[in-house]
Amino acid sequence: MTSNNQDLIEDLVLANHILYNEGVLDGFGHISVRNPLDPSTFFIAKSMAPGLVKAQDILLCDLDGVIHDEQKRNSYVERYIHSEIYRARPDIHSVVHSHSASVIPFGVTSQRLRPICHMSGFLGAITPIFEIRHSAGEGSDLLISSQKLGKALANTLGSSTVALMRGHGSVAVAHSIKQAVYRAIYTETNAKLQLESMKLGEIEFLSDAEASATSNMNDQHLERPWQLWKEKALQAR
Fold it and tell me: CA-CA distance, 99 to 102, in Å (whole number)?
């Protein structure tokens, strides 16, 4: 790992802590960032709880899911989520996989996750759902543990920012770590709001135009919530 990437690694460590602190990740889940010096590789933590990640725990992985580490440490078995999305989407530079609780119901029912407030316009009109049975059969453990399954998930994601994984969780993708953290947190927030609103009656979702406009607007202000989440995470250490 070169010194040129030290700031990026520190942001990745902070992102792990923020996502844990904000209730998106727990003992499971992970976030990665593409290596700007070699886009065919990315950084991700070794297999461990996100809230405990330190800079020395960050590993380098390539787009075949091969870990490049002199200490021969293992990363997450689902690193293929990241490798295949990076392969399919050159525009993407950070990926979050989480099991945030409020999102799960929208991957197992006919109720689709849609943007309900201006903070979650990035969800767009359709949040696709990945059905692992189509690729792994009826008896899988639902984990994305191979290049084949990672590619199938990336195909389902397509050009979207978020995809749900039936009975498992979700994946959020972005152009930067800060944007990925924002999207992962507000995907969970939107799910909570949508679940509560469904109790009251019919929901007036954002229109496609509103979703696009609010997403573009919020992307200009990512530093504001990042600094708040960062300070909270640092205080929690």
Answer: 9
Residue 210 lies in a domain: yes
Q: pTM value?
A: 0.96
Other beta carbons within 10 Å of 177 = 25
User: How far from chain centre, in Å, is Cα 83?
Assistant: 13
pLDDT in tens, 62-113: 999 999 999 999 999 999 999 999 999 999 999 999 999 999 999 999 999 9
Catalytic member of 10, 22, 70, 78: 78
Reduced to 3 states (helix: H, G, I; strand: E, B; else coil), residue 225 is: helix
Q: Is residue 237 part of a domain?
A: no
Would you call 63 helix, strand, or coil by DSSP? coil
Number of structural domains found in the chain: 1
Is 185 within the bounds of a domain? yes
Buried b (16+ CB within 10 A) or exposed e, 27-65: eebbbbbbbeeeeebbbbbbebebbebeeebbbbbbbeb
Cβ distance 195 to 150 under 8 Å? Answer: no
Task: Give the range of the structural domain holding residue 155, as residue numbers without chain letter.
Answer: 3-101+108-229
Q: Is 78 a known active-site residue? A: yes
134 falls within a domain? yes
228, amino acid identity: L
